[in-house]
Amino acid sequence: MATLLLYAAFAICVAISCFTNDIILGLVRSYAHLGPDWPSAAGRVLPYAAADRYDEYLLGSIKGAAFFAGLLVFAFLLRRAALEIWPALCRRKLWVDLLIGVAIASIFLFEIVPTGMGRIYAYNSVEPFLQHQGFFHRRILMPVLAHELHLDGVLYGVFHWIVALSAFALASLYLARKGLLLSRLELASLYTTGILATALGLPGHGEILVFWLTLLAMLDHDRAGSSGIVQPVCFALALLTHESAAVLAFGTLALTYFDRRFLPHFLGLLALYLLIWLASFGFDQGSATAAQLTGGTSNFDQFTRTLPLVLFSLFAAYKLTLVAAVAAMASLAKTGRPRLALLIALALGGGLALTAIATDYTRMAAFGGFAMLVALPVALKPLSPRTRMALASANLLIPTLYVAAHHGAVTYHGLYGLVLTHFFGMRG
What we know:
Layout: H1 2-18, H2 21-32, H3 40-44, H4 54-89, H5 92-108, H6 118-124, H7 141-148, H8 156-177, H9 184-190, H10 194-201, H11 207-224, H12 230-239, H13 243-256, H14 262-279, H15 285-292, H16 300-305, H17 307-318, H18 321-334, H19 338-354, H20 361-366, H21 370-380, H22 385-397, E1 401-404, E2 408-411, H23 415-424
Helix pairs in contact: 1-4, 1-14, 4-12, 5-8, 5-9, 8-11, 9-22, 11-12, 11-13, 12-14, 13-14, 13-19, 18-19, 18-21, 19-21
């Protein structure tokens, strides 16, 4: 029954995100033989509604109600996992350490309002069901949640920070359950790397919610000792947030972390997503692929021309934690845990592979950041506290850079940017 509810709710939500109002109205007019002015008569009886947009707002309301019903189903299926995690997240020390760590990291890189493509998410949150066709209208979950919580538009940044800080808390909880308690300086250093740094320096993007869902799925798997309904629900929600980040994270976990019961759900949900996505383009694979790519064209040629920059983006994203990942892979392979070593390799390699279809190399590379939480306990627990503090300090002093195909390496706002732009002439 739970599985049936999951797939039904997911199909509805994906259809809502893929079939824009223009597509639905076109289908209705075509098959019902309605004129292009439909339903202008209804619009004329509403003195404060524009007749030419009445159909859009009507459909938007219907889609919003259906999507909200789907979210209620997802929430029902996740209730036990949430109740289990909640007491651990309410510990005062966890939040004090986290907030002090964020405060220290924010000296080095920080942006308070949505920037880059985060602004598009903020804009879409005002009317999340009235979007035009493209890849942003399918990454609908962050805008919808912000809209439902009345934190849309100019308040979308507040919503981002709620999600980001709760994701940081889940990361601390995961590390603690693996026996690794980080000091406040170590937390600050960690927050300047990977997807955590993206959340601080480029707020508003959807991948931080995918990271949140990934950690929830991993924590529930570790608690239960096996995969259940929580893992496919988290994957379904992640696909509605950012499909590329979701496939990388949960595909890697399906092969290396979760047990085999999750793999059929991974393949089934992904196949259902692709089917509905292609159907929204009339099964025209060329048009669907072009809509998925940044700028509508492949980045592969630019990827091959800028391969050294692509490889540098991995270090720019992770800094010294990349060394910890390599050390952890070696240790895991030696101690008979090759699946976890493969997890780290696939996550980091998969993030690099995504740069072939996008131009923001550092963000793509950072999508594999969940693997660092697997690597750090293995790499750091054998070290002395003094060595760990020295490594954290060195990592914090290495500037975090944003690398993209069209402008190379640039700085984030904060102390990193101040030093690099004023003393080394780097672009900010």
